Amino acid sequence: DTGVSQDPRHKITKRGQNVTFRCDPISEHNRLYWYRQTLGQGPEFLTYFQNEAQLEKSRLLSDRFSAERPKGSFSTLEIQRTEQGDSAMYLCASSRQGAGNTIYFGEGSWLTVV
Amino acid sequence: AQSVTQPDIHITVSEGASLELRCNYSYGATPYLFWYVQSPGQGLQLLLKYFSGDTLVQGIKGFEAEFKRSQSSFNLRKPSVHWSDAAEYFCAVGLTSGTYKYIFGTGTRLKVLA
User: A80-86 long-range CB contacts below 8 Å, 24 or more apart?
Assistant: First the structure.
């Protein structure tokens, strides 16, 4: 396994701009998760895909956030009209279908909104 | 609702001393349980996991954790701490159905004194 890959690793953007993060899960992992981690906090669940279907979204995922996973492979997380409160690390993770399978996390994408 | 509590925000120990980090969870069934470590600016590294069976779990870097159902706890231990163990430690509960997502605690920051 090559691991979960996230891009970009760091992004600085001005308030009001749109940003997009990409996640490439481990191949053959059909489950994909997005989490957000702010300073001093644990990761918080944002959304979950099984293959290409987005099956769960947290209330943290406001209307400005949208996630996709076309064809059940890579995923994108877009934040529109960024706000300073969006500054955080966005973690992507993936796992295989089945009970008891470990979720593997990427290195994260740091977002700073100035 | 599922939740994870890590009661200690900060812990300071001397190098060579023993360590115990506390974790309590709330879940309707026997959960999957995990401990992760995170160095500043880095992603999450899995230390150990519990799915079933032996309640004492061995992990990497000399860490172990014990699942105590009666106390809803999964405390992390290390007999002798090294300076390189200084980091943030997260306990997580994994759902055993549905999305199988993880719910994280708020973390314990470990400082090691030389």
Answer: A80/A18, A81/A16, A81/A17, A81/A18, A82/A13, A82/A14, A82/A15, A82/A16, A82/A17, A82/A18, A82/A19, A82/A111, A82/A113, A83/A15, A83/A113, A84/A15, A84/A113, A84/A114, A85/A113, A86/A111, A86/A113
* Residue of B25, B111, B39, B31 whose CA lies nearest to B75: B25
* pLDDT tens digits, A7-43: 999 999 999 999 999 999 999 899 999 999 998 899 9
Report the alpha-carbon distance of residue A34 to residue B6 in Å, rounded: 22
> Which residue would you say has higher pLDDT here, B76 or A102?
B76
- Minimum-distance CB partner of B103 among A45, A55, A108: A45
Q: How many CB pairs under 8 A join A and B?
A: 55
Interchain proximity B99–A56, CB inside 8 Å: yes
pLDDT at res. A99: 66
Residue A101: list chain B partners with CB under 8 A. Answer: 100
Closest CB to A102: pick one of B43, B49, B99. Answer: B49
What pLDDT, on a 0 to 100 scale, did the predictor assign at position B99?
A: 87
- Strand-pairing partners, residue A33, are A48, A93
Give the pLDDT score at A1.
Answer: 53
Q: What is the torsion angle, in degrees rounded to the nearest 10, for the CA atoms of residue A39, residue A43, residue A45 and residue A48?
A: 120
Q: Give me the residues paired with residue B37 across strands.
A: B45, B89
